[in-house]
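Checklist before submission:
- one chain only
- standard amino acids only
- sequence pasted in full

Submission:
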Amino acid sequence: MRKVFLLVLTAVLAGFFSFSIPVIAADYPDIAPLPERKAPNPKAVELGKALFFDARLSGDAAISCATCHNSEKGFTTTMPLSEAYPGSKHWRNAPTLLNIVYKGKTYGWDGRLDDLDDMLRDMITDSMNMNMDMQLMQERLKQDPKVVQMTKDAYGDKNMGTSQKGEMTHYVARNAIIQFLETLTSKNVPFDKGNLSAKAKEGMDLFKGKAGCIQCHNSPYFSDNKPHNTGVPENPEVFKDPQRHFTYVAYMMFMGVDNRMNWRRDVGYYTISKDRKDVGKFITPTLRELKYTAPYMHNGMFSTLDEVIEFYNQGGGEDRPGMKDAAMKPLGLSSGEKDALKEFLLSLSGDPIAIEMPKAGKKIEYAPVPNWKEVRN
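Returned file contents:
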């Protein structure tokens, strides 16, 4: 009998202590400096940079990739909700492109694509983003002598989507932009260089332990690239602004989401899985370069890092029972601990990366449509 009692007591104590330890960092991929990558083709990078800033990649030549991913604003914008193709507005925050080459195989806030080339093609062709036809983009770029020469210089030994080597194709355009994106990596990051203050080191211990951040923000990219529901409040502008709401409903229609006219929330990963338990889940964003990428969350609802930390300290937001991630619990951080955690998070940002807009060549001047009376005569 005594033996049974001791076994039960041991089990109870083991359960108590395991419950008392909120996070065991060893259970998750460790945070670490970004690994070295093979340097991309410098001539392809120059072409990709020119195309990244080139508005001719959009349907009416009104916006470029840089419109929503501004190099002077952490390759995002300072707006809670992103801009979109003229005549529409987006319903989500534009994520940073910094370090995107380390992201893995989950792109978009709802994780609907698993390849960077597919994501780039989707952003260019989607009617709410750049609204461009790939063949038309290809033909436009072929009319610019400077772009033609840059393409020959970078891809003269390759035939991508054509039998002629060094010819501009939409495959070449996307490949060049991706090679440019490969250069957008953090520089002189205190964490990566092992140059942390005593307070930042305290914050790192909290990150891995009491605060539990490492449960979702792990690996060198500081993201598990998985969907989670943390109870982020809805941005009311998505439903108050007719243009944003229309764009959101059109997207859900395209993705085959049911009951789309009645949703008054961004359903997130449910768009992909069609499993009700995934409503309100979003892919974990990177924590790198937070200094430059406010406002935060998929809908830009938090303007400062202090707001984000307090949100998690309170155990996240509200949602229906069983919807919120089980890891979301009040943390009980003191003001000093919150300050230390913030200092560590800021140590994940390096030197600002600002790129001057290049000149790919003169804009194409299209011939005006002749007057129908002149044509008839």
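Reviewer check: The chain is about 35% helix and 0% strand.
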